[in-house]
Amino acid sequence: MVRNKSAILLCVLVVTSIAAVPVSAESSVYGNPELSLSVSDNTYRSSEAATLSVVASNNGRLEQGGPAQYEQEVQTAQSVEMEILEEQIDAPIDVKTGTVIAGTIPDSGTARFDFNIELGNAEPGTYEIPVEVQYKYVRMVTYGSVDGPEYTWRTVTREKSVTIEVEDRPQFEVVSEGNNAVFAGDTGQLSFALENTGTRTATSSSVQLTTQSPTIFFGTMQNPQSSTSLYVPTLEPGERTNLSVQVGAAAETQAGEYPVNLAVSYQNQNGVTETSDTLTTGIAVNPERSFEIRDIETERFRVDEGEAKINAQVVNTGSGTANNLAVQIGDTALVTPTNGESAIGDLAPGESKPVSFTVSIPAGAEPGTNMFPFVVEYENQDGDVRTTSPIRKSIAIEPEQDPFTVVGVNTSVSPGATDTVDVTVQYNGEEPVSATNAKLFVSDPISTSDDGAYLGEMQPGETKTATFTVSAGSSAVVKAYDASVEVRYDEADGDTRYTDGLPVGIALSPSSGGLPVPMSVLGVVALLGIGAIAVIYRRR
Questions:
Q1: Do residues 357 and 346 lie in contact, with contact meaning Cβ atoms separated by under 8 Å?
Q2: How confident is the model at residue 6 (pLDDT cuts 50, 70, 90)?
Q3: Which pTM was predicted?
Q4: Which domains does the chain have, with CATH numbers?
Q5: CA–CA dist 161, 126 (Å, integer)
Q6: E strand or H helix that includes residue 339
């Protein structure tokens, strides 16, 4: 019996000892993020492009706590992305942005999702914008294991919605524009139609216009202003009003399109002054006037010509009359104007008038086609002189023209004979010349005993024949030999001029008795004849 008690006591001690050995135990933290959506500014206007900013706020829920880092894990939304479900929107709203990703949103944190939208002609009121939100999070963290914590992940996709409001208010749009164009240095009218595209009447409206360029102004040339305003008493929804204001461009304004901003200040239904978004219209600036130089013809336009002439037509291709117009040859190193301006008076749109200029072309000028600038001067409506940019036209400078040319040569001289050579020359100048003499220059085997011929006075285009006496050596061959004629003449102002040598070909002709036989040939024939006589004599 004692033995049994001892055995029982031993067993109890063993069990107690085993229970005292430490054993590892696992614990868990679990919870989830909770996202709520809001719009910071949910007021919009119809027919506008805007940004819809959706703010996601995370108010995490903790179901079982534990270490702080694990509690944060289970309440954090990760890889958060949002998309607007455009096909479910019951309003004329066009979404221009796809899925927006914000990353991680911790407990008590926020993130903003921006979407570009365009509102059509939406009626005033509130509209639900459905969105889809997707994110992942750690549902549970199990810790206490010797292998470290274990994470259980979940992915959540939820549909939510936000509310926006389309306001009941006036809105404005520039719906048509006139032919808004002015010439640089002049004034004109800026015309446009303003329409109330909103849902409420605008009263006591002030349309403020502002230029965006320092060279565009409102008012007159003498009192230019950078801004001006127009008053519109009332403008009902859907109503439009035609507005016009005087606008101008400074003389230095480059051609092109220039914006003009306008904003409408009005009183709403509560008598509070509000201002519309900025609208834009524009003004086109043309060069002061536009002209063309056409139908260019030239006279004596050649190298070394003191009275070369240009004839042309100037055409007003613009839309306004140019007063007291004159055309000038612009600066050029090619020629020297001797009469470089042609005044023609007023020139209406589409009208043309002739102009002419006289220039001197130096002897060193190169023949060929060159660009010549023409400048048009005129007066604007204020009497100020304006100058256009150069109008460049190509004109060909011809080579220098010889005052005399050989137009005919006639001779019958033959080898071993003397005869005359008739050389006909033509005078190509513009003014008569006097004391004209022609001199012939030849070389061996041609010689001359009378190399001068007096031609006297010659008129432009006139021809005269100079006659010279020449001889051809007996050894000359029947062919043309080079020669030249130099002409001396006096111009109308008394200056004596000489031409360069004018080429002349003196062609030798066979003699009238038959073909000429050289002496060596005759000697051979004579020897043959003597030999034949001797043979006959011996036979006898």
A1: no
A2: very low
A3: 0.45
A4: 27-166 (2.60.40.10), 172-286 (2.60.40.10), 291-397 (2.60.40.10), 404-507 (2.60.40.10)
A5: 12
A6: strand 336-339
